[in-house]
């Protein structure tokens, strides 16, 4: 390298963004992702063994995909070439591959080809990579934030090692910021404790976001919360994930849903998301609320809440905020009933008091030889009776006649209430079902006849 080239590189380094300047130079400097970098972990074996194995790095933004790719190249003294799937075409891919083949043939030097956002490559563009990966003309390091099983063609996926990166923890982000304020490549500033906590929440596991915000606020030796708020044009949400705010806000969230105030519920949801609350915690509370405060008044609420939790695991944040919002809106607008939790709590209270008793003989297991000798007979098979229900005792003797579930009069429970009343009458033997009742929905009527008992 000439003196002129060195001077240009130094000048470029000085004006480069802080996130670029602070990129680790070796694997040992990488913060986080220890499941990939620990002793004997896949990525460390790949680098230290200098094997020409292609990898696909899948993870959220700011978790170190580009950093790991560059570290692989620099640690192994390979040539480095980078393509962006947003701007590169098939021609660009083939040009890099030809250069790599030539370098491999002339000097034996291997090339690391880093393709950022590889999920944006078309099938044709991904197909163009296959020969170079299969013949190991290049070591492909492809980065994606999308599920590779949906966005990357199977032949390319099968020829590469898939490594999943996790969002950085709060401690990881603090370590990244601490290094940026103490390393000569970083900024000459320190943060107040309040500013540090806001920056950690603002980052949301994204190191690049944390360093970008830090650089924007680093105009004085000490960065305060107010300076950071001004720099990122975003107010700090006073929210301690281990303190009162955590419990107060989630309480306000659930009570707003219970009270059917959709606007207040959305406010608290937004407040938690902005403060960096663990979205899985929010999703779990929605699932609980769907049964605790809505239950059978709108049985679809549980499905919606579970679907939102599944969507969160599938696509992650920030996109999953939409799914959480949809579930919040659905639950807030749904008819309310606490009959489900009241029913199970009442039943459990009886069990704790010792009201258990034995299972009635006709309900006990009768699938083994000698069961009839023990009196396990008399079971009436409901499918043999009109309406698929028949009078017989199901509960143990100590709780016969006790009613745990008491549906309300809103939503689906209004229908459930009518059906339940009829079922209880039939089970007690007070009423019986006629076949014509089944065709129009369950509306039991009183008849004097009882069907012949049938044993199974």
Description:
- With 456 residues, this protein is an alpha/beta fold.
- It has four domains: 33-164, Rossmann fold; 170-232, Helicase, Ruva Protein, domain 3 (Orthogonal Bundle); 244-333, Zinc Finger, Delta Prime, domain 3 (Up-down Bundle), CATH 1.20.272; 355-439, DNA polymerase III clamp loader subunits, C-terminal domain (post-AAA+ oligomerization domain-like).
- The chain is 50% helix and 7% strand.
- It has helices at residues 3-15, 18-21, 34-37, 42-49, 65-75, 90-107, 123-134, 148-151, 154-158, 170-180, 193-203, 207-217, 225-232, 244-258, 262-274, 279-294, 300-315, 320-333, 339-352, 412-428, 435-439; strands at 55-58, 79-84, 111-116, 139-144, 161-164, 190-191, 222-223.
- Strands 2-3-4-1-5 form a five-stranded parallel β-sheet, sandwiched between helices. A two-stranded parallel ribbon has the order 6-7.
- The chain is elongated and about 95 Å long.
- Residues 1-9 and 435-456 have low confidence and may be disordered.
The SS-based structural class is alpha/beta
Beta percentage is 5-15%
Provide the number of structural domains.
4
| Helix content estimate | 40-55%
Helix-strand string: HHHHEHEHEHEHHEHEHHEHHHHHHHHH
Q: What CATH architecture label of the largest domain applies? A: 3-Layer(aba) Sandwich
Distance between the termini: 91 Å
Shape: elongated
Main sheet record: 5 strands, parallel
Question: Which strand order does the major sheet show?
Answer: 2-3-4-1-5
What is the rounded Rg? 32 Å
CATH superfamily of the largest domain: P-loop containing nucleotide triphosphate hydrolases
Indicate the multimeric state: single chain
The averaged pLDDT comes out at 82
The strand count comes to 7
Unreliable segments of 5+ consecutive residues:
1-9, 435-456
CATH class category name of the largest domain: Alpha Beta
User: At the third CATH level, what is the topology name of the largest domain?
Assistant: Rossmann fold
List the total number of helices.
21
């Amino acid at each position: 390298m000439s003196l002129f080239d060195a001077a240009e590189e130094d000048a470029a380094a000085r004006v480069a963004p802080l996130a670029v300047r602070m990129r680790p130079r070796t694997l040992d400097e990488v913060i986080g992702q220890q499941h990939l970098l620990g002793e004997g972990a896949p990525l460390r074996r790949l680098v230290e063994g200098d094997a020409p194995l292609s990898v696909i790095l899948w993870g959220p933004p700011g978790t170190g995909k580009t950093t790991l790719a560059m570290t692989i190249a620099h640690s192994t003294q390979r040539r480095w070439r980078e393509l962006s799937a947003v701007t590169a075409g098939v021609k660009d891919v083939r040009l890099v591959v030809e250069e790599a083949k030539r370098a491999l043939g002339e000097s034996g030097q291997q090339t690391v080809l880093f393709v950022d956002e590889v999920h944006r490559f078309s099938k044709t563009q991904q197909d163009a990579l296959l020969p170079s990966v299969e013949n190991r003309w290049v070591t492909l390091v492809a980065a994606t934030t999308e599920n590779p099983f949906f966005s990357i063609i199977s032949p390319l996926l099968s020829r590469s090692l898939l490594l999943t990166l996790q969002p950085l923890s709060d401690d990881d982000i603090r370590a990244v910021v601490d290094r940026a304020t103490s390393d000569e490549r970083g900024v000459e500033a320190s943060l107040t404790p309040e500013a540090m906590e806001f920056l950690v929440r603002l980052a949301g596991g994204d190191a690049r976001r944390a360093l970008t915000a830090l650089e924007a606020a680093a105009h004085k030796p000490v960065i305060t919360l107010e300076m950071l708020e001004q720099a990122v044009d975003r107010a700090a949400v006073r929210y301690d994930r281990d303190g009162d705010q955590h419990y107060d806000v989630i309480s306000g969230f659930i009570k707003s849903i219970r009270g059917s105030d959709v606007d207040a519920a959305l406010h608290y949801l937004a407040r938690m998301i902005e403060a960096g609350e663990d979205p899985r915690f929010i999703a779990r509370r929605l699932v609980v609320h769907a049964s605790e405060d809505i239950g059978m008044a709108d049985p679809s609420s549980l499905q919606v809440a579970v679907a939102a939790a599944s969507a969160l695991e599938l696509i992650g944040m920030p996109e999953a905020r939409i799914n959480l919002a949809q579930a919040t809106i659905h639950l807030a607008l749904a008819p309310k009933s606490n009959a489900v939790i009241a029913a199970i709590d009442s039943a459990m209270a009886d069990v704790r008091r010792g009201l258990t008793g034995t299972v009635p003989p006709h309900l006990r297991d009768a699938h083994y030889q000698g069961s009839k000798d023990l009196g396990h007979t008399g079971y009436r098979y409901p499918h043999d009776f009109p309406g698929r229900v028949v009078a017989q005792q199901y509960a143990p003797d100590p709780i016969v006649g006790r009613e745990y579930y008491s549906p309300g009069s809103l939503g689906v429970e209004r229908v459930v209430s009518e059906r339940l009343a009829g079922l209880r009458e039939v089970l007690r033997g007070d009423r019986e079902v006629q076949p014509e009742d089944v065709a129009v929905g369950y509306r039991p009527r009183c008849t004097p006849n009882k069907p012949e008992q049938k044993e199974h």
